Amino acid sequence: MADQRSESPPATTYLCVGTDECPHVAELICYALGKALSEECRRVEAHLNKGECGYCRRWIDNATRHRTEPRPDASGKGLDLSGIFTFGRQPSPAPSELTPIPPSSRWQRQVFIDLEQRLTILEEGSGG
Amino acid sequence: MPLDPSKSLHFESWEQLLQWLPEANENQLMTVFVWAGEHQAPLSDAPRLGRVRKEAFEQLVRRTRERLARFLIQRVHVHDPHLVEDVVQQVLIKIYLRAEQFDPKRSFWGWVYRIARNEYIDTLRRTHPGDVALGQTGRTDEDAEKWLENTAEAAGTPESAALEKEQRQRLDAAISTLPALQRSVVQMKREGVKGKDVAKKLGISQAYVSQLYHEAGEVLREAIER
Prior knowledge:
The structure holds two protein chains of two kinds. By secondary structure, chain A is mainly alpha-helical. Chain A contains four helices and no strands. The longest helix of chain A is centred in the last third of the chain and has 24 residues. Chain A starts with 24 loop residues before the first helix and ends with a helix. The two termini of chain B are 35 Å apart. The N terminus of chain B is likely disordered. At the A-B interface, α1, α3 and α4 of A face α2, α3, α4 and α8 of B.
């Protein structure tokens, strides 16, 4: 079996590199799709305005291709999605339709149990 | 606070969950990412839930970028660095957008490599319309399934026996990391069981057997030749 690694430079030389100051990639994608929270927008724009970050700019350009709505105006104002807690994946229901959210600690326990169950099912499937 | 090894999948706090993420495998990270996107949090928990989701995806990005680039360079024979970077990013963006479509019981890397190959072909079609060879772009003489079959056979000269033994050991180790159903498919096919018999024994369709086997070939070949 030919060793193709000897024919090509290392994969890392093909990739742009970010810095510790770069926002999370998920934030960049959300920003490009117009689904970022105001605070996230501010963070991304502050980072971009600091200096040309090719790494982040590339993520935003690539993610923008998947955008279905027009980009925000030039002022860069982010969408205020403070009423939506799930990154705009689904349209926000009217307030009268929202299920009352239980107190934080109880809610946290419930969602953690949900996560643990999913991970346990995954483990059992892998060990199969 | 580190997780109790006897309760490795039990979380008492957001911090504990965040601490665990670097130790999670890719299928677990996808599970966390999807989970965090599905729940509506009270105001006090929303930032933490958001942070878990972002960190889970960031872990996936860190682990995927270089490996995906290597796959594109070595398996799909992409040599344009700009194209490699763009395809890698597009694949990760698609993972982000299609996360709910991923079945965590299947091979993460098989899914990713399939998206990557398709993304590369789509990119070429956009930039080189009318190129009739694109269906074969990047394929080597042996496709992933043939490669898998060939490695299962006892082959090679006495001089390469040691190398082959090492490769078979690495292959066996890599097979053991596959999800259970996919592992069964690969093992049965290596034993010479025909696809329709594999399907019958496992209670799945023949098309599904082919898909699992093909995905496994991509994953295992990459794991061995890393």
